[in-house]
Amino acid sequence: MLRVAQRVLLCALLGSVSASCPPRCECSEPAHTVKCVSRELRSVPTGIPGYTRNLFITGNQISRIGPESFKGLDNVTTLSLSNNRISEVESHTFAGLRSLRSLDLSNNQLAVIHPEAFTVHNQSLRELNLSRALYNHSSVMDLATSLRWSSLGSLRGLDLSDNSLIYLPSRIFSHLTSLRWLQLSNNSLVAIHNSTFLGLEHLEELDLTLNALRTVPEEGLRELDSLPGTALLLGENPYMCKCGIEPFALWLNRSQGRIRDAEALVCAFPVSMRNTSMLSVGTLTLGCNQRNAGADLALQTSYVFLGIVLGFVGLIFLFVLYLNRKGIKKRVYDMRDACREVWEGYHYRFEIDSGPRLSQVSTSADM
């Protein structure tokens, strides 16, 4: 009878444990883990055990999440919501996750990100993964606002790779003062502008590989120099090795110590320079000085030739004037006499109109 009672008690305990696990999810109390993977869920399931520290809800059909989605989960430290087709994240969605340190929203379709979408009490969040998560370019502005308003002062890592980003709004990371690594690889960034990385004084690694950088102008170089303690990754960009890239090439040689893939940086265009090491690109390789000197010489020659032509035309003009000096003098005298006659006629008419008696005489004479 004792063994039967023990078995009944064990079955009851197992039943209570299984009952505490949401439908279509797998729960492990010893591992403090709950997994709801590829179950075609349309919302975050309810009844997730309070012991949960690692929560994986991935590969489902969830379209939006809000503050009601994660109530009572104070112990969750790792939350993965990847590949769920999430399009909207409301403000304070994760505010109840007081212990949250890692949040994965990769492989979603975020079109609407509310201003305080990533706010977590106690600023416990350390890692935020938004790789392949942004739906379109307009959501970048929503993201910039959310990073500014979500109190992420303790965030250490941010992954924005694979989002087809063409540009980054100014000061987008200015409130992430504790950020240590920033992943921007596999986007379409064409330039680095002033104030893009403002506020990232503690950044340790910046990954800009696989973008659309053809060069980095002086403004971008100053921006990268504002991060002296940051290790940089700049490989696999389509660098255009033509005249004008010399400042970037010189900067690369000067900054080799903190560019981890400096030896692998090569030219992509033009074809004649393809696969040439960026570290070897300079004025001698491109021949820019020689071209500039030749252009200056050609410009100076053209100016001299133009001066000679204008001087010759001027001499011809003066010679023509000299040959026609008598005719020109006669025409000037004729014009002077004509002007004098006209002036005397106007003067005579004015004297008649101004004298009443002369005016009467003139009128009677006309009659």
CATH topology description of the largest domain: Leucine-rich repeat, LRR (right-handed beta-alpha superhelix)
Level-2 CATH architecture of the largest domain? Alpha-Beta Horseshoe
Number of domains: 2
Taking all Cα atoms into account, the compactness measure Rg is 41 Å
Q: Note the total helix count.
A: 8
Ends distance:
159 Å
- How is the biggest beta sheet arranged? 10 strands, mixed
Order of helices and strands: HEEEEEEEEEHEEEHEEHEHHHH
Number-wise, the strands total 15
Describe the oligomeric state of these chains in a short phrase. Answer: single chain
**What proportion of the residues form beta strands (DSSP E)?**
5-15%
Give the neighbour order of strands across the main sheet.
1-2-3-5-7-9-10-11-12-13
Q: Label the structural class.
A: alpha/beta
Chain-averaged pLDDT: 86
How does this structure look, described?
The structure is a single chain. By secondary structure, the chain is of the alpha/beta class. It is 35% helix and 12% strand. It has a ten-stranded mixed beta sheet with strand order 1-2-3-5-7-9-10-11-12-13, with no helix packed on it. The chain has a three-stranded parallel beta sheet with strand order 4-6-8. Helix 7 packs across helix 8 (356-366).
Question: Helices and strands in order, then pairings?
Answer:
Blueprint: H1 2-19, E1 26-28, E2 33-37, E3 54-58, E4 64-65, E5 78-80, E6 88-89, E7 102-104, E8 112-113, E9 127-129, H2 139-149, E10 157-159, E11 181-183, E12 205-207, H3 218-225, E13 231-233, E14 239-240, H4 246-254, E15 267-269, H5 283-286, H6 288-323, H7 325-354, H8 356-366
Parallel strand pairs: 2-3, 3-5, 4-6, 5-7, 6-8, 7-9, 9-10, 10-11, 11-12, 12-13, 14-15
Antiparallel strand pairs: 1-2
